[in-house]
Amino acid sequence: MIDKAVEKLIKREEARQKRVINLIASENFVSDDVLRALGSVFTNKYAEGYPGARYYGGNEVVDELENIVKARALKLFALNPLRWAVNVQPLSGSPANLAVYHALVPVGEKIMGMRLDMGGHLTHGHKVSVTGKLWTQVPYGVDRKTERLDYNALLKLAKREKPKLIVTGYTAYPRTIDFKKFRKIADAVVYPELHRRGAILMVDMSHFAGLVAGRAYPSPFKYADVVTTTTHKTLRGPRAALIFSNLKLKTYDKKRSIAEAIDKAVFPGLQGGPHENAIAAVGVALREAAQPSFRKYSRQVVKNARALAEELRKLGWRVVSGGTDTHLLLVDTMSRGMSGKVASEKLERAGIIVNKNTIPYDARKPTDPSGIRLGTPAVTTRGMKEKDMRALAYRINKVLKSV
Ligand code: DSN
C-alpha cells in the first residue's frame, strides 16, 4: 500500500486478532475469499434500485450478482422462492430492522420487543434508538427466576397491548426460542377497530443465523412473517444484512405484499446505492455456509459454548439461566463481587476479549453492568474444541480471581 499509516494499522489489527482469544459472541473470522470479494471492484459501482430496474447504466454484472446472492440466501435456509423473497441490500442489521418497521408498522404504533437490559437489541424499540422514537415499544423480558422467556406472560401482554408487530431473536439470550409459541402469541392479538387479528411476527436471527443454516438451532421460517439477519456473526460473512419476507402476507392497507413494501423501504426509503462489494462477499459466505463443513462448524460452536458454560459453573461462576443452547453465555460476575466492566478489563489485559453485559433484572447500568457475555463462533473458526473450552474456563477463572 502507498498509504503506510493505514497499512500499518491493518497489520497491527491483524496481529491483534491473531494474538488474542476472541470471545465476542457477535464476531467471527471470515475466509480469504470473503475478504477478496469485499475488496473487489464491485465497490466502484453505483446500483441504486433493484435487478432490472436501476437508476444508473452499467449494471448488467451487478444485476447478475444480486440475483445469485438472493438465490443462495433462499436456498441456504431451504426457502421456496414462490413463497419467500429476500432483500440483500441492507447495509447492516440496524437499517434492516428499521426498514421492516418503516415498511410495515405505521409510525406511532406499537412494536413488542425484548428490553435491551434483558437481552434485546436497541433496534427492537429501545428509547434511545430511532425505532423507539418513531414507534412505541411494548417491552418484555425474561422470567426473574428461570431467566427464560415466559410464553404465558408474553401472551397476556400481547393480548392487552395489541402491538402491530412482535419481534423475537436477541443479542444476549442463551436459550432456544420457541417460534411456534411466538406465532400463537402473534395470532392471538385482536384489533377490534380494524376488524382483524394477528400481529406481524418478525424474527431477528442475526445472532444465530449461522446456527440455523448449520441446523444447530431451530429455523424460524415456518412461523415468521419476516426474518432479518446480519451476515457477519455466526454466519461468518462480511458486515451486511438480509431481510426475508413471506410472500403470502400483505401490508395493513392490503395494497401490496410485505416484500414489495420492504424493498421500497430499503430503497429509496432509507438507503441509496447498495454496497455491491459487501453483497458479493455475502454471496461467498452463503456458499460457504451451504457446505457440509459448515454444519460441523455450527454444531461445534454450540458444543463449545456448552462446554465453556459447564466448566465455568463447575468453577463456581453463576451462568445466567444455568447454561446455554446457543453460541453464547452470560456470566453473572457480580455474584462474586465483580462488575462486568472490571471483569472484561481484567480479561482483556490477559488477552481474552469479551464484552461487559447486563444480566436479567440487572441493578447496575449498561455501562457498568453485572455480567459478561462470552461467545464461541470466533474461537470455533480458529479450530478450538471442548477440551480447549475447559482450558479456557480455567484461564478465565484464574484471571478473574487474581488481584
Ligand atoms: N452489537 C451486536 C452484538 O454484539 O450483539 C448486536 O448488533
Automatic annotation (TrEMBL):
List where in the cell it is found.
Cytoplasm
What UniProt keywords apply to this chain's record, in alphabetical order? Amino-acid biosynthesis, Cytoplasm, Methyltransferase, One-carbon metabolism, Pyridoxal phosphate, Transferase
| Listed SUPFAM superfamilies | PLP-dependent transferases
Q: What class of enzyme is it?
A: transferase
Catalytic activity reported: (6R)-5,10-methylene-5,6,7,8-tetrahydrofolate + glycine + H2O = (6S)-5,6,7,8-tetrahydrofolate + L-serine
Q: What are its E.C. numbers?
A: 2.1.2.1
Keyword Magnesium: yes or no?
Answer: no
State where it is primarily located. cytoplasm
As stated in the Swiss-Prot or TrEMBL entry, residues carrying the post-translational modification N6-(pyridoxal phosphate)lysine are K233
Q: Which GO terms describe its molecular function?
A: glycine hydroxymethyltransferase activity; methyltransferase activity; pyridoxal phosphate binding
* Site location (Plays an important role in substrate specificity): H232
Residues annotated as binding (6S)-5,6,7,8-tetrahydrofolate are L116, G120, H121, L122
Question: Which residue range or ranges hold the Serine hydroxymethyltransferase-like domain?
Answer: 2-393
Q: Name one GO cellular component term.
A: cytosol
CDD domains given in the database record: SHMT
Tell me, which GO biological process terms does this entry list?
glycine biosynthetic process from serine; methylation; tetrahydrofolate interconversion
Which cofactors does it use? Answer: pyridoxal 5'-phosphate
- Pathway listed for it? Amino-acid biosynthesis; glycine biosynthesis; glycine from L-serine: step 1/1; One-carbon metabolism; tetrahydrofolate interconversion
InterPro entries, per the entry:
PyrdxlP-dep_Trfase, PyrdxlP-dep_Trfase_major, PyrdxlP-dep_Trfase_small, Ser_HO-MeTrfase, Ser_HO-MeTrfase-like, Ser_HO-MeTrfase_PLP_BS, SHMT-like_dom
Q: How does it assemble?
A: Homodimer.
Q: Which family does it belong to?
A: Belongs to the SHMT family.
As for what it does, the entry says:
Catalyzes the reversible interconversion of serine and glycine with tetrahydrofolate (THF) serving as the one-carbon carrier. This reaction serves as the major source of one-carbon groups required for the biosynthesis of purines, thymidylate, methionine, and other important biomolecules. Also exhibits THF-independent aldolase activity toward beta-hydroxyamino acids, producing glycine and aldehydes, via a retro-aldol mechanism.
Q: What is this protein called?
A: Serine hydroxymethyltransferase
Q: Which organism is it from?
A: Candidatus Jorgensenbacteria bacterium CG23_combo_of_CG06-09_8_20_14_all_54_14
Gene this chain is encoded by: glyA
